[in-house]
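User: Before I run my own analysis I want an independent prediction to cross-check against. Here's the chain; please return only the structure tokens and, at the end, one sentence I can use as a sanity check.
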Amino acid sequence: MNESLQDILKQRLSFTYREPIELLVSMSMTARKDQMLQLAEELHVEVDPFLTVLLDRTGEVLSPHMKRELGYFFDFGFFRWGPDIAFYASAFDSREDETAEQWIDRLEITPAGHIVSMMVRCAYNDNLGEFLQGRTWNDFHLDLEALAEQTRKIEPSGQVDRTQSHLLECLVHPEETKQRYMMLIRQFHRLAFAPHAQELRSKCEAAIERYEKLFQTDPKRFLHDFHKLDPTFYTRTAIHHVSFMFQIGCSLYNIGKHADWIIFGINNEQYFGPEAAIAKVEKFFKAFSDKRRLQFIRLVAQRPLYGQELAAELGVTPAAVNYHANFMVLLDMVELKRSEHRLYYNVNKEKVREMLELTAKVLLGEEKYGPGPGGGKDERD
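Assistant: Structure tokens:
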């Protein structure tokens, strides 16, 4: 008897907490603190007070040198891959629930050339075909001189503009690079992460129970609400790492040897669950406060487009496409679907019409929301 898609999804997708991944997310969020707070303000997302406390404490305990090193290895924006993804790839490769210290020890014995070559592989992920120019990754893997030569040849783009000089420095000085990132990771773990590690684990493990229950009840609905992806996208094992430091969002990494990994924000339920109509309308107006987003949705309404096509049409970088799409994805007006190894943006026309109708009702005062005086029922004019 053929298994249903729901049953297949239950077998393929799971939820866990991995300390090495949370350590890396902590480093990323600290490096991108200003970007994160600005984005939270733009999306009307309330930042967890404990996260603010952690970021402030981290800023106090790290030396100016460590902060510069943190920026060097981890500050590459929210909507593109940078060299830091090489460290995530290392953490994803473990099948066991190793501690952050165990992972750091494992990273210590990993050859510098392997990590540095993975930095290049991840940084050029979105335009790897252009980088390889008809060759395969195996032609370059661990050949740092060839990687450096190719990195110099490829014209910097919106994906690797600031990253390129970092990569060349790391490729020319791999052992020195390893000394730098090992010192940074060990110092960050000791000073900023370890003092709060148990509290972070406890918060995330409690959230795992909630999300596991929601997922098991209706996997397809869960993926639609939280991932904004077609359930058939998942063709192999995928593991959710529930992250306190990530807070809100769902980021997929298909670079693990044994499984795909999803960094899943601990507060997603609050943001993607049922919301007040006025809050939705505020987000709707915010989504179209930039005329490029209006152009974005008009283009995608004609036919599905993938990131680089949209970037060319809008005259922006692929990273900017992801940024603008985020506003509409959060309102379910735009969805991502896989076709021929690419992710295409699609307009959910029904959701757009629904949001327009809801906006009119809110603006005209034709519908009131929240518990009325009758004991919890909605009041309707």
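Sanity check: The longest strand covers residues 238-243.
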